[in-house]
Automatic annotation (TrEMBL):
Name by which UniProt lists this protein: Protein ABHD13
Lineage: Eukaryota, Metazoa, Spiralia, Lophotrochozoa, Brachiopoda
Pfam families according to UniProt: Abhydrolase_1
A single GO cellular-component term on record: membrane
AB hydrolase-1 domain span: 76-204
InterPro entries in UniProt: AB_hydrolase_1, AB_hydrolase_fold
GO MF: palmitoyl-(protein) hydrolase activity
PANTHER family according to UniProt: ALPHA/BETA HYDROLASE DOMAIN-CONTAINING PROTEIN (PTHR12277), PROTEIN ABHD13 (PTHR12277:SF81)
Length: 312
């Protein structure tokens, strides 16, 4: 009995230590080196380097890559939430391809404590950063507010799910794209680290939660899931679970064979998958409009949940 009691005390002690270390174990704003000093900006493209403030007064950096003047005001605008390491400059090549091949304006959002943004990262802080980015984009009068697409990769997927289910934006967003993201932070931590004591920790003991698997049931917007099947950080099964539990009335899951966690965007067929999905959403809105129904997909009234899984 004494041994069992000691074991419980050890687990509680370790849980307390881990709780205080979790931010350092999750957020890597200085990896690779100098990521807080140098942030690459777009080359050969029209862009704005933007600084805005969140509701709690933190100044964050964003970069808006703009389609040429004749298309900027009518093109879809992607709000891009990246993963847990580096800065927005490390996603510039991916953004350039989205600009060229998919015709997006792209707002790259830098989390607090990353790149040129002030503050320190935290779960609640990243949510406030996302809301500040959405507020900014919807306040601009030169952007088509009916074509706002929210994109999230890895940790950014959890942020994207949060903002896409937020009461203020859940009916204003055109579509959501999620790439290699997890069901929740406790679940992915337990999947990554096969440590006995970690498996025994209750989920509530984790400082960072990012409970996407719960929130995604409320996500009724058209959603594209992009899943690298050789992802060694986020188990692809988690993308399957998010897809299955999504409340979206139009959802697609595209699996890329051999694609890793950070390189799925380099896979053959990646941009075709995005373009085909966008065209499908456009068409679905036109059909619903012509039938004299609501333009917003996701009102939940008599809608048919439509899903499709594709392997590339």
């Amino acid at each position: 009995m004494a041994s069992a009691g000691n074991d419980r005390l050890k687990v509680i002690h370790i849980a307390g230590v881990l709780y205080n270390l979790q931010d350092k174990l999750l957020y890597y704003p200085e990896e690779p080196a100098h990521s807080r000093i140098y942030v690459e900006l777009p080359q050969g493209l029209s862009y704005e380097n933007i600084f805005t403030h969140t509701s709690d007064g933190v100044q964050i950096n964003m970069v808006l890559i703009k389609q040429p003047q004749g298309r900027f005001g009518t093109a879809p605008t992607m709000v891009f939430f990246h993963g847990n390491a580096g800065n927005i400059g490390h996603r510039m090549m991916n953004a350039h391809c989205l600009y060229l091949y998919s015709g997006f304006n792209i707002l790259l959002v830098e989390y607090r404590g990353y790149g040129k943004s002030q503050g320190s990262p935290s779960e609640e802080g990243l949510y406030l950063d996302a809301l500040a980015a959405m507020k900014y984009i919807f306040q601009r009068e030169d952007i088509d507010h009916s074509k706002i697409v929210v994109f999230g990769r890895s940790l950014g997927g959890a942020v994207a799910i949060y903002v896409s289910t937020h009461p203020h934006y859940s009916r204003k967003i055109f579509a959501v794209i999620l790439e290699n993201t997890f069901t929740s932070l406790p679940q992915v931590a337990k999947a990554l680290f096969h440590l006995g004591f970690l498996q025994r920790l209750p989920n509530w003991s984790f400082k960072n939660q990012y409970p996407s698997v719960i929130r995604i049931r409320q996500l009724q917007l058209p959603t594209l899931f992009l899943s690298g099947q050789s992802d060694n950080l986020v188990p692809p099964a988690m993308m399957n679970e998010l897809y299955d539990k999504s409340g979206s009335i139009l959802k697609r899951l595209v699996k890329f064979q051999g694609a890793s966690h950070n390189e799925t965007w380099q896979s053959n067929g990646y941009y075709d998958a995005i373009n085909n999905f966008m065209m499908e959403v456009y068409k679905s809105k036109v059909v619903r409009s012509s039938a004299d129904t609501r333009l917003e997909l996701g009102d939940g009234q008599g809608d048919h949940v439509e899903g499709e899984v594709k392997v590339i």
